[in-house]
Design brief:
8 helices; Rossmann fold; Dihydrodipicolinate Reductase, domain 2; NADP; about 30% helix; threonine biosynthesis; protein dimerization activity; Semialdhyde_DH_dimer_dom; alpha/beta; about 350 residues
């Protein structure tokens, strides 16, 4: 007997990707139920070769469900995750709602799988921000090898991180420019086609954005509270795939060659680092893959024990859908969740 899995927000970018990955990875599910808002009830979504009809979140009974994979935004998660958790169903939430709650584990399975055990306090597990997820997968093995002191990260984040409307806006603006139809920003604060925007989420009092704050706070919670991190998060005219230029300062000497060897053996990481034209991975090339790719590993000559690298990952996969499913898989592997009776 397998597990019963509900995917909440099944009609969105991440929800659809969750359904794809559940099927691709042959997750041990006897039943997968797509759930959406009332206006999407009856709408069909794909699950492998099957077509599944969406059910209504407000009327669905979660008492017989093992996992609820939540990708419906913070407001819905704030209202529904505790209610679903109270039925005994484990909620794995992709929004920012529960990430900073001390009673909710924030998990990237390659980095801090032991933290999952804390789910029993609320029956909720949080998935980190997509830009944080790929970063900590890379930082973890390096931190284990040579203790990271400080990280400076510049992100190049695709529009899919802002949802389907953002992807539509990039597409429509790009087409419009070629037919002399002036772009009209709606989802973004400025034109996104053929442009970059150094602004993701709201501004905070210190001049940083909430996206930048998330990377700092989440890295500390997942990896090590002593790590100092500063980020500049930039939206770029790419449909899928986040990239990051990462500068790392270690407490002890650690060379680029040593880092390359460590990362080659790290779970979830693929090193493609040839010092030649095209010897690196770009966002377009990582789409559809589960790995975080690392390239351009080199010593930083401007600081003691410094290293610089480039990493890219499919944000809809590793940054969101895949990580959520890996958490569920880890719970099963560790025997943390018994299957409910049919």
């Amino acid at each position: 007997m397998g597990y019963k899995v509900a995917v909440i927000g099944a009609t969105g970018n991440v929800g659809r990707e969750m359904l794809n990955i559940l099927e691709e990875r042959e997750f041990p599910a006897d039943e997968v139920i797509p759930i959406a808002s009332r206006r999407s009830v009856g709408r069909e979504v794909s699950y492998g070769d099957a077509r599944l009809k969406c059910r209504d979140l407000e009327t669905f009974d979660f008492s017989g469900v093992d996992f609820a994979l939540m990708s419906a935004g913070s407001a819905i998660s704030k209202e529904w995750s505790p209610r679903i958790g109270a039925t005994g169903c484990v909620v794995i939430d992709n929004s920012s709602c529960w990430r900073y709650d001390p009673d909710v584990p924030l998990v990237v399975p390659e980095v801090n799988p032991d933290a999952i055990a804390g789910f029993t306090k609320k029956n909720i597990i949080a998935n980190p921000n997509c830009s944080t997820a790929q970063l900590v997968v890379v930082l973890k093995p390096l931190h284990d090898a040579a203790k990271i002191k400080r990280v400076v990260c510049s992100t190049y984040q695709s529009v899919s991180g802002a949802g389907k409307e953002a992807m539509d806006e990039l597409w429509n603006q790009t087409k419009g420019i070629f037919v002399t139809d002036p772009p009209s920003p709606e989802k973004f604060t400025k034109q996104i086609a053929f442009n970059v925007i150094p602004h993701i989420d709201i501004f905070l009092d210190d001049g940083s954005t909430k996206e930048e704050w998330k990377m700092m706070a989440e890295t500390k919670k997942i990896l090590d509270p002593k790590i100092k991190l500063t980020a500049t998060c930039v939206r770029v005219p790419v449909f899928v795939g986040h990239a990051e230029a990462v500068n790392i300062e270690f407490e002890t000497p650690f060379s680029a060659d040593e880092a390359r060897d460590v990362l080659r053996d790290a779970p979830g990481v693929l090193v493609v680092d040839k010092r030649e034209d095209g010897g690196y991975v770009t966002p377009v090339e990582c789409v559809g893959d589960f790995a975080t790719f690392v390239s351009r590993i080199r010593d930083d000559q401007t600081v003691d024990n410094g290293l610089t690298l480039w990493c890219v990952s499919d944000n809809l996969r590793k940054g969101a859908a895949l990580n959520t499913i890996q958490i569920a898989e880890t719970m099963i592997e560790r025997g943390l969740l018994a299957k409910k009776a049919a």
